[in-house]
Amino acid sequence: MPATVIDGKLQSERVAERVKTLASELNLQTGKKPGLAVVLVGDDAASQVYVGAKTRKAAECGFHSVQHTLPSDTTEDQLAELVDQLNADPTIHGILVQLPLPDGINAPRIIQSISAEKDVDGFHFLNVGMVGVGEFANAFVPCTPAGAMLLIEQIHGRDLSGLNAVVVGRSNIVGKPMANLLIAHNATVTVAHSRTKDLPGTVRQADIVVAAVGRPHLVKGDWLKPGATVIDVGINRVPAPDKGENKFRLVGDVDYAEAAQVAGAITPVPGGVGPMTISLLMANTLVSAYREAGLPKPSFSLDK
Ligand SMILES: NC(=O)C1=CN([C@@H]2O[C@H](COP(=O)(O)OP(=O)(O)OC[C@H]3O[C@@H](n4cnc5c(N)ncnc54)[C@H](OP(=O)(O)O)[C@@H]3O)[C@@H](O)[C@H]2O)C=CC1
Ligand SMILES: Nc1nc(=O)c2c([nH]1)NC[C@@H]1CN(c3ccc(C(=O)N[C@@H](CCC(=O)O)C(=O)O)cc3)C=[N+]21
Fold it and tell me: Which of 7, 28, 152, 174 is the one with CA 20 to 30 A from 187?
């Protein structure tokens, strides 16, 4: 039986609807709007698309939404100054500095200079540490793993006791926080990466596979345990000559056509984890605004 397709676009719209409702309640109670500042440095084409999507979604959710677009020759000090200004701006509850930053800018320094209370990406060491020790009450969880968890929840519920999860990729922004969230939900977790000896054999143990590698179609159908849940985080642009000269299409890290014949459930690319990332960014910004207003933290579980 072909796999259930996990509709990330639909689920992301559900999250965004809830954000919108809660933003209007905040506005009624306090007269304030959640404020998101998105900072883009340089003219990377893919980054422009993502940043535009984030700024638009924030406006759709009824947020105060500002985008700062700086030229590629911006200095590190100029960028740090903008971050300081946003840290001090009471109308801003979330700051996102789009990565990658141009060469010559020390990205870790800039990211760590964002106030932890406004770090809606969840990249500040304070948030990373809270997620690492399972202290979620005041942590911003990185948007991509948080969105992936909500999709997993649609299939398995919130308690993953007894299930084996394999995360392929160990980056600080996806793989590692993903592993921490799966552990917090009681899964038995293996993290694989480029130095893993038997990747197909490792993936075959998994009831839940999360692929966050950046290699188009790396994970094959015959690597999967039949019935496994497959979460494809990868976003890869590959040439699509059938669409015309110099045309591209987006594909994931999983060979979707093969995997869909073996998996129990699978996320597509596009339309899977990507849209969830953007909605979870809105959710984090909303939570930040609620916190600043002294209101109880809203939750974002996707009950069916
Ligand atoms: N959907 C979304 O919202 C988002 C999607 N992405 C996408 O997710 C993917 C991963 O992103 P990110 O984590 O930032 O990437 P990184 O490049 O930071 O990390 C990639 C990881 O994959 C591992 N890896 C690379 N090649 C192999 C291989 N052949 N076999 C096994 N492991 C391998 C690397 O191992 P090692 O550590 O040993 O080098 C590394 O741990 C990308 O396609 C990116 O575009 C990213 C962020 C958000
Ligand atoms: N500070 C920072 N925070 C990030 O969260 C961050 C970042 N930098 N740099 C780049 C990555 C990548 N990322 C994506 C978000 C949404 C989609 C997304 O919506 N994808 C759509 C397709 C979009 C398209 O058509 O290109 C989909 O998968 O359906 C993809 C990728 C966030 N990132």
Answer: 7
